[in-house]
Write a structure and sequence with these properties.
Number of helices: 19
Strand order of the largest sheet: 1-2
Oligomer: single chain
Low-confidence stretches: none
Structural class: mainly alpha
Helix content: 55-70%
Distance between the termini: 25 Å
Largest sheet: 2 strands, antiparallel
């Protein structure tokens, strides 16, 4: 079956069934597993109740809070009374979730918004449930996009296989129930792949501009995924009809992508440098990320390759207090210096640690560590366990699919492999964790679908040969 194969009514119903299952899995995860309620206590005194599971002590708090502040006109800042300028993360997730908060702060959706009731009778809408539900629905859209990517290049049969895998794969849908950036990143990665596959496989100038803009939004979602931009430039040049040996042709093909990305990212960089004391590009989180990745526990022992969110990698509360009233950019600078000092003193260990990070990223080194590590980021133990089982089942099929694409469709293979290459390079430079691999789960799913279809085709051919003989 090929991409130009007509879609019959029965097959379109099959596709709709995939979307229905995908939505059911994701919405059920939010409504049942994340249902709550979450009782908030301070010194054993109940001060509020969330009508959803707690966001925990992780990035969910930041995304949820900053989205609500933005929706209520506070800009990119912390909650009252401080309202300190914040750029702990790039802004895309905050902007998207801020739109959700704004919609549920006003009629008619405000009637169904979640509430936290405090002792003094005030009502503060947290929108934890609404944020999770929106991401669950966006995750369902992602399933449709992955299916469409495969259909555009490999045909309907392989696309439906990819659809069923993406609808049920735990390491994909778990992101859709957690208030973080992964679901939006997967959405943008999928759109980039579709743009590269459009109009002669990315040969048109219009497609390259679109890819550049999408790469900009992706960098504003997860900073390290800016690495996809140069990989996309190479993919666009590789897939164009022009000669790839001429430097000027490569530059001409790359310019729309670079400029499109710059147009999207530059306003955020200018805005940050107008409100922070020191230079800030995409976020102030790069310093703490660097310090937690370059320290003794992350270089030696059973925690090698991970990010360590505690001393000696990070400062203690007393050390931070000693810095005085400084803004986030200054603190980030201190953390960068701390990590850089450790790196300089232990540079000879970096190749070993980088390889360990890659092995951790792809669950080839101490994979069971992720069960406990992910639990700290609101990913239940049973979700990680089931995800690991399905991951190792899919891997052989993905290997077969990659080999098949490299023989028959290298252009598509190169496009599909971009997210995997980007997250691998990011892990080598910083740290590894299953969540950070989320955009590359699309790579695994597509390759596994191609491999499974190849095996099925081989089995059918074998049966046909046996029957004829």
């Amino acid at each position: 079956m090929h991409a130009n194969e007509p879609i019959t009514l029965r097959r379109s119903r099959h596709f709709l069934l995939i979307l229905l299952v995908a939505a059911t899995v994701r919405v059920s995860y939010v409504m049942v597993v994340k249902a709550g309620p979450c009782v908030l206590k301070i010194k054993s005194v109940v001060v509020g109740v969330y009508h959803s599971e707690c966001t925990g002590e992780n990035d969910q708090v930041n995304y949820n809070t900053t989205a609500n502040v933005l929706a209520r006109g506070g800009g990119f800042a912390g909650p009252a009374p401080s309202h300190l300028p914040l750029a702990e993360h790039p802004p895309m997730t905050t902007v998207v979730l801020g739109g959700v908060s704004f919609a549920f702060d006003h009629l008619p959706l405000s009637w169904v918004a979640d509430e936290t009731r405090f002792p003094l009778g005030t009502i503060e809408r947290t929108h934890v449930r609404e944020h999770r539900m929106f991401l669950a629905l966006l995750g369902t859209v992602n399933v449709g996009l992955i299916t469409l990517i495969v259909f555009r290049s490999r045909g309907l049969r392989t696309a439906l296989i990819a659809g069923w895998i993406s609808a049920t794969y735990p390491f994909l849908w778990v992101n859709d129930g957690v208030i973080m950036s992964e679901t939006i990143a997967i959405f943008l990665v999928s759109l980039i792949a579709l743009a590269l596959l459009s109009k002669g496989h990315g040969a048109s100038k219009h497609s390259r501009w679109m890819v550049g803009v999408l790469c900009g939004f992706l960098a504003l979602t997860r900073a390290e995924l800016a690495l996809i931009a140069p990989l996309t430039v190479v993919a666009s040049v590789w897939s164009s009809d022009a000669s790839r040996r001429r430097l000027m042709t490569m530059v001409r093909n790359a310019m729309p992508i670079v400029l499109g990305m710059a147009i999207v990212v530059t306003p955020w960089i200018v805005y940050n440098n107008a409100r922070f004391e020191r230079r800030v590009t995409l976020s102030t989180n790069d310093g703490i990320t660097f310090a937690g990745s370059y320290c003794q526990p992350s270089f030696h022992g059973t925690l090698t390759g991970l990010w360590i969110p505690s001393p000696p990698c990070l400062f203690t509360s007393d050390q931070l207090a000693a810095l005085g009233p400084v803004d986030a950019s200054v603190i980030s600078g201190f953390y960068k210096r701390k990590g850089l000092d450790y790196l300089k003193a232990n540079a000879s260990q970096l190749p070993r640690v980088a390889l360990t990070r890659v092995a951790r990223l792809w669950n080839l080194y101490r994979p069971l560590d992720m069960i406990g590590y992910n639990q700290g980021e609101s990913r239940e133990r049973w979700v990680t366990s089931s995800g690991l089982i399905m991951y190792f089942v899919l891997m052989p099929f993905a290997g077969l699919g990659l080999a098949r694409l490299l023989r028959r469709n290298r252009r598509f293979a190169f496009i599909v492999m971009q997210p995997a290459a980007a997250v691998t390079l990011a892990a080598m430079a910083l740290y590894a964790q299953t969540r950070l691999r989320a955009p590359a789960e699309t790579t695994l799913i597509i390759l596994a679908a191609v491999g499974a279809d190849a095996l099925a085709e081989r089995a059918r051919s074998s049966r046909a040969t046996t029957f004829e003989s």
